[in-house]
Amino acid sequence: MKKTLALLALLVCQIINCQTFSTNLTPVGWEHNILFNSVTRYTVTQEGPTINLAGLFDGSMNPYYMAGVTPATPKVILIEGLSGYHTQAGAWVGWTTRYLPASRFKIEGYDTYNGVNVWRVIADYSDVDYGNYNFSVKIPVGGVYSKLKFTFYNGQGGNVGLSELFFIHPEATIPYSGLLTQSATNWQNNGTNLFYNLGNVGIGINAPQNKLDVNGTVHAREVKVDVTGWPDYVFKNNYNLPTLEEVEKHITEKGHLENIPSEEEAIKNGISLGEMNAKLLQKIEELTLYMIDVNKKINVLQDNNDRLIEENKMLVKKIESLEKK
User: What stretch or stretches form a coiled coil here (predicted)?
Assistant: First the structure.
């Protein structure tokens, strides 16, 4: 029994000691892969036989294949605009595939550290066959690599498969940030704020045309809309207030108020809150002027009516006085 326990304890210690964790020197997973979603975060171009570029950077590991890859027509994938972080303790570059691995390839990086601005060879299998389904290598010369170039020269019968390209840079990113944000300038944190600087956001809609498109109800305690003007000009002396006859004519001919969208236009194009509120306020202010004018006329009529009542009373008294004589 004691021997069994001792053997079990030794086995546990070996397992623990063999466990490897991601560190600056020993990346195990791809959580620090800065090439996730490269097609939207950086500038990615390809030459030679075409392949689904987006699929090589989405972390899904789905294989994509190219035919006709030869030394005369190599496949070149160039990634530009990478983060300007030094590789420090280490960074790793490579590729993986399920089938049809490249047998001849080269990986290069453009180093800008201290203004050196040179292409450095990271891995070169252009003259010797490589026989595995994945490849990774630690960048041999530390630097700031703003570009990566993958060149594939051959595979099985000119066929090459690729599932993912990666650049594992532990000190250049937080885990999986490239998968969580599809652009280096999109979702970002600024203290307690989260902001988005590129493209449009759609909620319940696949192809948003505005900064925020929502196919549904938006519930808020308050909505603030910036405006470029406000219709207080209605109250200025030089404002050309339409007569009520003109308003009636426009309604009769058009079926809606002047400068207000028709029902058909509103349903087709929607309305802009800031613009519509300003237009509605303009109409309210015009109504206010009409009411003030009507009130003045009513006051005049009231005064005239009061005067007529008093005159009538005086006439009644005169008539009664004449009748008594």
Answer: 291-325
